[in-house]
Each structure stands twice: as C-alpha cells, then as structure tokens.
UniProtKB/TrEMBL annotation:
Transmembrane spans: none
Lineage, broadest ranks: Bacteria, Pseudomonadati, Pseudomonadota, Alphaproteobacteria, Hyphomicrobiales
Protein's UniProt name: NADPH-dependent ferric siderophore reductase
GO molecular function: oxidoreductase activity
Pfam families: FAD_binding_9, SIP
Matches recorded under InterPro entries: FAD-bd_FR_type, FNR_nucleotide-bd, Riboflavin_synthase-like_b-brl, SIP_FAD-bd, SIP_fam, SIP_rossman_dom
Top-rank taxon, per record: Bacteria
Domain FAD-binding FR-type: 4-128
Family note: Belongs to the SIP oxidoreductase family.
CDD domains: siderophore_interacting
Length: 295
C-alpha cells in the first residue's frame, strides 16, 4: 500500500458570508504550491484528529486505489468541501453553519494559526463543451460550488438555477457572464423540511434544440430520485448530468444503521465498487442495496 498524498493548510482568516455560512481561508507553504484542477466544483477532503486522543489516523491506498486504515485504529474523521475561491497562496472554504457537525463546528471555532490536513482537490462537474443550456440544482451545501461554477460560464450559456435554503437570509449573490435565471425555495430541504428539488426538476421543460447539462448537489437521499429521473425515465447518458450527494440527513441514525448492517451486505457493496463495471451501473446497484436497507 502507498501513503495517500496529503498536504497541510494553516488558517489565516475566518468570516461570515451569511448567517448560515462561514468562510475559512487557508494558506501556508503547501497551499502556496497547490494547483487548481480548473473545475468549478473542485473539492478537498479535510481530515480531523480524534477529539479525545488527538490522534490523526490517515489512510493508505491499496493496489486498486481504495483506502485502507491500520488494523485496530480509529480512522480520522474526514469531510469534503468545495474550494470557493482559489488565489495565489490561499484558498477559501465555505461551511454551512449547523450543530453536531465536526467540520462545521471546527470552522466556527477555528482561529488563525490552526492547522488542518487535507487531500489535494478533485472536480466533478464535466459539462460538454457545447452545453449551452445548463440547470444547476442544490441546497445550502451546494452554494460554494454553485457560485464558482456560475463564475466560469461563458456568455453564450443560459443558466437555470434552483436552490433551496432555510430562509431568505441564506441567499447569496452570484457573478456570471451567463444568462442567469434563479429560483430560491425557502423553508425546504436542508434537514428542516421535505426537499422540493425533485419536483422542481420534474417540472422543468428542457429545450430540445439546445445542448443540455444538469448539475445537482444536495442531501444523499434527495439526489437519488433526481438521478433516477434523468437516467432511467428520460434515458439520458451520464455525460449530460452530474449528481452528487453532499451530505447525509440524520447522520447519527444512518451510522447506527450502517453499523448494524450484516457484514455480508457491506461486503456486497464493497465488491460492487471494486467490480470494475460501468460506474453508472455500479451506482444503480449500490443505491438499490442502500435503499433496501434504509440507508
């Protein structure tokens, strides 16, 4: 196994973006040497030490590229966050403000000089070059990626945006050269109420004479039916959409259910990921198993 390539960032600033979003700026030698992927929703994975022992147990990579941890060690808690702004020697990471979240609580309490271990960035958004009509759908967790993606669009693109947030105070302004139309859904999703995103996507009329691309980022179970709609009902190829679960609602309950899951089922899921089959077919099968067991 090979060690995972990780870097260290030093907190050099923190500010509130909205009442529901806090921004942490990281710098330091490793950040100064960091290269952007150029993809608007690129993210880094943050690793947090054990809150009791302070031990930071990091993964290694096996021959297939999957992570493995030392036997008998508690893996470091890790979470993924979009790079909202990428400047020379600095990156900004935006965190949704909430309780009982390791990363959010860290972001709200961190001070200049604090350090954090992170993995280098990876991007997900992959719109075809001719995609001149794009739909962006997210909840509050997707706002940092949404903002950066919109900033990168050309003036020839028509952008439709649907965002659900707790209330109007969570809205953010965006800069873009694209022709932008945005709808804010207040009091929906975000762990406070049922999501309206699937209904919103189903209500869209996609232009038949345009090259369409859809980007979705929200709660894990919320995005599944949207993906099913695009992939199985509309029969779209995976090149026309990007669907990502950014977080899990009722995480403690989910983790209890996962912990109680039959080891054979966990092995089935792991085998699916390692099968080498088409990634979209594998995701279909994995999500079917997860849904069967309420995950």
């Amino acid at each position: 196994m090979a060690p995972l390539k990780l870097i260290k960032g030093t907190v050099i600033g923190r500010q509130m973006v909205t009442p529901g979003m806090v921004r942490v700026t990281l710098g330091g030698p490793d950040i100064a040497a960091l290269k952007t992927t150029g993809v608007g929703d690129e993210y880094v994975r943050l690793f947090f030490p054990d809150p009791v022992t302070g031990e930071l147990v990091l993964p290694e990579v096996d021959a297939q590229g999957f992570w493995k941890y030392p036997e008998g060690k508690k893996p470091a808690h890790c979470e993924c966050y979009t790079i909202r702004y990428f400047r020379d020697g600095e990156i900004d990471l935006d965190f949704v403000v909430h309780e009982n979240g390791r990363a959010s609580e860290w972001a709200q309490a961190t001070r200049p000089g604090d350090e954090i271990v992170l993995r280098e960035p990876y991007g997900i958004y992959e719109a075809p070059a001719d995609a001149d009509w794009q739909l962006f759908v997210c909840d509050a967790t997707g706002l940092p990626a949404l903002g950066r993606l919109l900033e990168g669009l050309a003036e020839t693109v028509e952008a439709r945006v649907i965002v659900e947030v707790p209330d109007k105070s969570h809205e953010q302004p965006f800069e873009t050269r694209a022709k932008l139309k945005i709808v804010w859904l207040h009091g929906a999703g975000n762990g406070i109420a049922a999501s309206q995103l699937e209904d919103a996507v189903r209500s869209m009329t996609f232009p038949a004479d345009r090259s369409v691309y859809v980007w979705v980022a929200s709660e894990a179970k919320t995005v599944r039916p949207i993906r099913k709609y695009l992939r199985h009902e509309l029969k779209w190829p995976a090149t026309r959409y990007s669907i990502t679960g950014y977080w899990t609602d009722k995480l403690a309950e989910w983790e209890r259910n996962w912990g109680a899951l039959d080891p054979a089922v966990k092995q089935q899921i792991d085998d699916l990921w390692r099968s080498g089959r088409d990634a979209q077919d594998v995701r279909d099968d994995v999500e079917a198993v997860m849904e069967k067991f309420g995950l």
